[in-house]
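Suppose a colleague, Dr. K., hands you the sequence of a protein chain of 842 amino acids and asks what its three-dimensional shape might be. Before reaching for any lab equipment, you can write down a predicted structure in token form. Begin with the sequence itself:
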Amino acid sequence: MAACALPPLGVLLALLCVGAVRAADTVTADRPLSVSQTLVSSGRKFALGFFQPEGGAAGSWYVGIWYHNIAVQTPVWVANRGAPVSDAASSRLAIAPDGNLALFHGSGSIAWSTTKANTSGTANATDTVAVLLDSGNLVLSPASNASAVLWQSFDHVGDTWLPGGKLRRDKRTGEIQGMVSWRAHGDPAPGMYSLQLDPSGAPQYVLLANGAQEYWLTGNWTGKFFTGAPEVAASSGGSGYSFEFVDNDEESYFTYNFAVNSTVYRFVMDVSGQVKGWFWVEATQAWNLVYAEPKARCAVPRGCGAFGVCTEGAATACDCARGFRPRSPANWGFDDFIDGCVRNAQLQCAKNSTDSVSSSTASGSNKEAQDKFLRMDGTRFPDDGRTVGVASTGGCQTACLADCTCSAYAYNGSCFLWYGDLQNLEAGVGDDQAGAGSLYLRLAASELPGARSHKWRNVKIAATALGIACFVVAASILLVRTTRKRRTARLNGLTAGDGCVSYKYSDLQYLTKNFADKIGAGAFGSVFKGQLSDSTVVAVKKLEGLRQGEKQFRAEVSTLGTIQHVNLIRMLGFCSDGAADRKLLVYEYMPNGSLDHHLFRKTFYVLSWQVRYQVGLGVAKGLAYLHERCRDCIIHCDVKPENILLDAAFAPKVADFGLAKLVGRDFSRVITTMRGTIGYLAPEWISGEAITTKADVFSYGMTLFEIMSGRRNFEQGERPSVVSSAEDTTGAEEQATTTFFPLLVARRLAEEGDVMELLDPELEGDADPEEMRRVCKVACWCIQHDVDARPTMEEVVQMLEGLTEVEMPPVPQYLEVLAGRHAQESTYHSAQQLDETAYGSV
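The predicted structure, expressed as tokens, is then:
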């Protein structure tokens, strides 16, 4: 664009120049868009213009839409995905003579163009305009009638599905509109992964590789959630999102929206092959991942590329097989592994013929140059192996060596050969599983252990020639290397094995990067994220307030380390280097954090009733195991949503069990810290009576109320919704400003009212009424004032599983007093609870 010259006293002219280049939201026949200009939607939420993707090829320009007010440029739609322009300075986005919107090269040829759905009344360029809306939709319409949409970007979704857009199936034409991933990071061209509606017409999404291979399904939409992804519900209440499925004679589609227009959310078909949901967090100025499917990263076909090895549960899903390196290291830094790996050393195919093999006995150099095989145990085999009729492992190896294109072989009674690039390698799979075992990967001889190279011999000769003058330096280097090797050897033993490992403090400093990533803090200390040498992610907790000596601490921790139950967090190890501030515990890492995060904080998805019921049942089973099946009875002493963690499948695991004993039986400090969770403490804590397992039963009951209601038991600013007929309703409304949920449930049960009205509103009544009533009864029995009236956790499990009948519980009268006494305190306590992070109580 030509610069505007400023004549003397040309303030008015300067303003006119600024107006000439201002960011409008419309492309017209007389107003094309050049590389130096940007369209901005009327609400300034989205921008459209020329851009170069981060990490993309130099000189490749695209026209796309991105968020205008977000510092991290995030494209949500690209026009010319497969046809970048290199002459951006002379290219332009303009209305073509036929009324379509087109991207023109400097030569005048068209790189990309719309195809109008309707040309009636729009025969030439002057009749149409293109407008960027604040929804992120680019709309082509007649200049005289903006509501008559001729073409829109929402009908041509790229890799991103924005709120208000549709993923649809046209029943008249059979055309399916879905999302298609980028080819790679920095390359918007259509990639190999896509998400779309089921072509069969079923109301579900399918994930496809190369447009045909189906590798994940959401399950059918029930009207409330997907059967295979229950965490995605229809809505999250009046302040959240709404998810809708529309099915009529012309089309069927899904769409979603947010009640708050300022919410910035995008749904992306990622280059990794996973579909991901991202929220923009203004406070951190970063995108926050809240949804990813399939959760099993190794379920994505070709997800790690050629010769890439996938390991489920590792911090980095993909790694190159030994003897290979990433083809695009920069892309691997962005978790984009699709380009796979390349060999470090090329195969010596010419020396692997039968003649070369037979003559190798007479020639040491030929034997050294001959390709060899690396044994990879516990590997899932690729799908495209060919069977060869040989009857031994040696014969299978010889058959592979005889063909330069053979990359690997396996023998399990039959000989299988693989040719060319190996895809879908997965490590850590049991040899007893179908399609898994020992795979022999073909490598150049120099890549295998014990191989010698000329380079190494030259280095040794050069090192010897340095002589005595470099002795001190060489000795220093040797000392450093020896120290590092010893450390590496020790750290290689620090894996998530079956036993409870004793760590050194320096080891945990190293594994947590000097405790750099803090993920929570609670009554017993702070929690940090770490990674073991086998890539297992762990949570490392620094204990505080210990009351025990070294010998007793190690004995107690060793006992806790032997406890294993599917609903109890697993302790992997501990550290006790003498000093009180060097007592640490190492736990398995739970990717979905703590239960309170999902119950009390707004997220994109809502825990369905089925998930909540299983969480309640799982926690009961875990506590029952601690109380009755351990060698020594363990009382948790602090059961609450913050201490219930969720794994990748939303299965519950109780955390912090046994830590009360580790800090000693003097609970004065613990109770002071736990005042933020006073609502979970049994009455005997206050009265000074002996603490038994029934204290955990009480806390569990209080937690069960919150699981069903989706809110804290004490919440300020609400009037009681249930008042006994014997009470003065007017007086209650004047005095009570706090709703105590357990009291509401107990009264509703006593009056034989509808307990479904007490269900979390975000579930919109989608729960089994019989299960809901059973949960209410169980919770009320658990919080009885009389210790003997409360059931054991084993009995709770039987009641929730429907094995025993649950009688009608009496209304605990002390709740009336408790609700009034703590009405003022709960404001402080609830705020303190909400400040605890997902791993605050690990």
